[in-house]
């Protein structure tokens, strides 16, 4: 019986976590501890919160790829073995464990060089894939749009090119297992030139997608509507928060990387100002660089956004490490200098004491929310109003004839009316609204006050 409850037809995966670096002192689990009596045991290793979180994340990735976990091994090494990553002794142990658990695939939570991959496949009685292949496979499973499929295929082929000579078992099988899903016939090609031609074709197609996105963005920018992008670690609750704010009904899932294709929806802030909210792909520890490169067209929404909302899982013991990983990817996108709001999501999973402790722990300015229970959304909307500097809020006074019904309707729908009075067929009103909207009706303006209603400009 596998360690996790999944489809009986699922591949059986042997999970191998390799921690490179100095050993850490901590409590031990006890020798040969088993998670399930019917499966092979795993060798005891130091157990610390960080390591348990890494194991839990790795296990969730494997389950998201549709596999059943047949066994788990953790190895600590001061440095990587250049030939096999894990050393000859551990290779023998893994070979025996893979045979006893009838594993179909050994998944290494580390990147493997072409040589390491070839040597491990020669030594083990099952296929071998590394962390990058695993993540690429999950992306291939979740890609729904043509753009997403093109981006995943490009990343897979760019990963495959330097490994053609060391991909014997995987290259000799038809797709049907983890790490073999995606590019189709091109994955079976051993002719490097044919794969390179396909890569060039994919890049051209994605460049066409990028041009279309740029044109769409330019059309949006002709009428200034700021974009706000949700970013964060995978499974932090971005899509649930997006749905709570927009009622868009996008897919919400506890599975990692459920959202690959960006979603855009217009929302109205308390000031009546309209903005576009973007839901983006989640980040993860050691996100393959090929994915960051291939998904650059998708992540362009992050680069063009005026404000980033960093959604964090308040219930995760690794929230600080996850924050660092997100900021690492944001650095690759050159957007660390953009205004950012931090949202501590999933506070519904915390006790009152834990919530108070987190909010008092120095996470200055963070907004506590529960997207599932719609807690903290009003505070988030107000903070977004404060952060936006494009199309600033102005307070102005207008005198509009009642016969100008369109102008009155636009001002009532797009501004906050401070006061209103009637004199004959005239309507005099003081309103607070975005400069772009007020500028359209400047012919009715009585007085333009110098003071902006935007806090950042007056601060």
Write a structural description.
With about 450 residues, this protein is α/β, with parallel strands linked by helices. It folds into 3 domains: about 1-220, GTPase HflX, N-terminal domain (Rossmann fold, 3-Layer(aba) Sandwich), CATH 3.40.50.11060; about 225-385, Rossmann fold (3-Layer(aba) Sandwich); about 395-459, 2-Layer Sandwich (Alpha-Beta Plaits). About 40% of the residues lie in helices and about 20% in strands. It has helices spanning about 50-65, 90-100, 115-125, 130-140, 145-160, 170, 185-190, 190-220, 240-245, 290-295, 295-305, 320-330, 350-360, 375-385, 405-415, 435-440, 455-459, and strands at about 10-20, 70-75, 105-110, 125-130, 225-230, 265-270, 275-280, 305-315, 340-345, 365-370, 395-400, 415-425, 425-435, 445-450. The chain has a 6-stranded mixed β-sheet, with helices on both faces. It has a 4-stranded parallel β-sheet with strand order 2-1-3-4, sandwiched between helices. The radius of gyration is 27 Å and the shape is elongated. The model is unreliable at about 25-50, about 165-175, about 185-190 and about 450-459 (pLDDT under 50).
What coarse outline follows from CA principal-axis ratios? elongated
* CATH topology title of the largest domain: Rossmann fold
- Compute the number of helices: 17
Low-confidence segments: 25-48, 166-174, 185-189, 448-459
Largest sheet: 6 strands, mixed
What's the end-to-end separation, in Å? 63 Å
User: How do the strands of the widest beta sheet line up side by side?
Assistant: 6-7-5-8-9-10
CATH class type of the largest domain:
Alpha Beta
Helix content: 25-40%
Rg from alpha-carbon coordinates: 27 Å
Summed up, the domain count is 3
Structural class: alpha/beta
CATH H-level homologous superfamily name of the largest domain: GTPase HflX, N-terminal domain
Number of strands: 14
């Amino acid at each position: 019986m596998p360690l996790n409850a999944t489809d009986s037809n699922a591949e059986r995966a042997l999970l191998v976590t390799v921690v490179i670096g100095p050993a850490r002192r901590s409590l031990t689990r006890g020798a040969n501890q088993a998670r399930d009596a019917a499966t092979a045991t795993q060798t005891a290793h130091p157990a610390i919160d960080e390591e348990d979180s890494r194991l839990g994340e790795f296990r969730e990735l494997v389950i998201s790829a549709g596999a059943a976990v047949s066994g788990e091994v953790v190895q600590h090494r001061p440095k990587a073995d250049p030939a096999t990553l894990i050393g000859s002794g551990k290779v023998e142990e893994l070979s025996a464990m893979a045979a006893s658990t009838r594993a179909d695939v050994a998944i290494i939570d580390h990147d493997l060089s072409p040589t390491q991959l070839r040597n491990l496949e020669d030594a083990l009685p099952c296929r071998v894939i590394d962390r990058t292949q695993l993540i690429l496979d999950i992306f291939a499973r979740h890609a729904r749009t043509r753009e997403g499929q093109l981006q995943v295929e490009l990343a897979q082929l760019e990963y495959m090119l330097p490994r053609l000579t060391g991909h014997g078992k995987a290259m000799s099988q038809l797709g049907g297992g983890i790490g073999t899903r995606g590019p189709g016939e091109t994955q079976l090609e051993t002719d490097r030139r044919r794969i390179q031609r396909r890569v060039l074709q994919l890049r051209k197609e994605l460049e066409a997608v990028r041009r279309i996105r740029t044109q769409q963005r330019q059309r949006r920018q002709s009428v200034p509507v700021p974009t706000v992008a949700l970013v964060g670690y995978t499974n932090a609750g971005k899509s649930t928060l997006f749905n709570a704010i927009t009622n868009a009904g996008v897919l919400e899932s506890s599975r990692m990387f459920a959202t690959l294709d960006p979603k855009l929806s217009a929302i109205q802030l308390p000031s009546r100002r309209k903005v576009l909210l973007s839901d983006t792909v989640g980040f993860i520890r050691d996100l393959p660089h090929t994915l960051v490169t291939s998904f650059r067209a998708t992540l362009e929404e992050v680069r063009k956004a005026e404000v980033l909302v960093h959604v964090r899982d308040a219930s995760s013991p690794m929230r600080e490490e996850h924050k660092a990983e997100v900021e690492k990817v944001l650095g690759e996108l050159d957007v660390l200098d953009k205004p950012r709001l931090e949202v501590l999501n999933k506070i519904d999973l915390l006790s009152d004491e834990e919530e108070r402790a987190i909010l008092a722990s120095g996470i200055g300015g963070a907004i506590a929310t529960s997207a599932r229970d719609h807690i903290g959304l009003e505070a988030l909307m107000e903070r977004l109003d404060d952060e936006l500097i494009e199309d600033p809020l102005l307070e102005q006074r207008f005198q509009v004839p009642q016969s100008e019904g369109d102008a009155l309707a636009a001002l009532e729908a797009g501004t906050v009316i401070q006061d209103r009075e009637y004199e004959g067929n005239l309507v005099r009103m003081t309103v607070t609204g975005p400069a772009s909207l007020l500028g359209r009706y400047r012919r009715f303006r009585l007085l333009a006050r110098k003071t902006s209603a935007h806090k950042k400009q007056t601060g």
